[in-house]
Specification:
globular; about 40% strand; about 290 residues; 18 strands; alpha+beta; 5 helices; 18-stranded mixed β-sheet
Length: about 290
């Protein structure tokens, strides 16, 4: 047990990656919240925990900074791939990872110095069916369904890409503000029609193959970027006829390239950067008890 952690980010969305088998403490909601705290802990948007898998090369469990568990994370998967390669747990540049949101394939890209600086992830197939999020609305698909939040009457498209998303589009000539996100995001995340809560994207088409999004993540709040959010917003935009694939999705932290095929199978491509490695101190661990 060495209590070593790895930290990386994808477009400013940062995660701590670690192997629970090499930690002298258990990952519980309390310890996860402590590690992710940006003032009292290491600080991150979540935890990526290595685990076993009978279906893939590696298993992954993803935890939000509030201690809850997420099914899938696009940025997290790119960081996890970087972690595996840089810590020499694999020398492959192409491998599979099992998440609670399904099996994915990761293809790593290396720069001239041999460091992972990008990754392409096959994210699986999107679904618009209420049961896949879940959502309690009794409709065949969650396409432009009415919902009220923050005193506004909105229409959302519900998309599961292994985890749940609520995408709200405005017209191309309009725009969302950060204040809109701070007001609408938490209300939609916790709306009664989403019994397991949901991620939220406020989206605007910015061209025939481009959209801009603001992101409110379930269990994390406002984030600079989110790979699964970019995938969900792109799928919703394609389904609504607002954009065509491939779609360039711009978030405050940067841009991801999303390909959506006719069956709504998704491929995400974007950058990733290792930030730091370190040891969680015994003093901090003792304070968790």
């Amino acid at each position: 047990m060495n209590n070593i952690f790895f930290k990386g980010h994808g477009l400013g969305n940062d995660y701590i990656a670690l192997d629970p088998a090499k930690m002298s403490f258990k990952l519980t909601p309390r310890t996860i919240r402590a590690l992710c705290d940006r003032h009292w802990g290491v600080g991150s948007d979540g935890i990526l925990a290595l685990g076993p898998s009978k279906k893939a090369d590696f298993g992954l469990r993803i935890y939000n900074p509030d201690g809850s568990e997420a099914e899938k994370s696009g940025n997290g998967l790119r960081i996890f791939g970087c972690y595996l390669y840089h810590t020499k747990q694999t020398r492959k540049k192409h491998f599979t990872v099992e998440t609670k949101g399904g099996l994915v394939e990761i293809h790593l890209e290396l720069n001239g110095h041999g460091y992972v600086n990008g990754a392409t992830v096959d994210m699986g197939r999107a679904s618009f069916q209420p049961i896949s999020l879940p959502c309690t609305l009794r409709v065949p698909e969650l396409i432009q369904q009415p919902v009220k939040a923050a005193g506004q009457s909105l229409r959302f498209t519900g998309v599961s890409v292994g985890n749940p998303h609520c995408v709200v589009y405005k017209k191309q000539e309009e725009q969302w503000t950060r204040q809109d996100l701070l007001e609408i995001g938490p209300e939609l995340e916790n709306h009664i029609i989403f019994p397991k809560r949901t991620n939220v994207q406020l989206a605007v088409p910015s061209g025939p193959r481009a959209i801009s999004i603001l992101i409110w993540e379930r269990g994390a709040g406002e984030t600079q970027a989110s790979g699964s959010s970019a995938c969900a917003a792109a799928c919703a935009g394609v389904r609504l006829g607002l954009v065509k694939s491939p779609v360039r999705v711009k978030a405050p932290g940067g841009t991801l390239d999303i390909t959506v095929d006719p069956q709504y199978n998704i491929t995400m491509k974007g950058p990733v950067t290792e930030v730091a490695r370190g040891e969680i101190s015994q003093a901090f661990i003792d304070g968790l008890r």
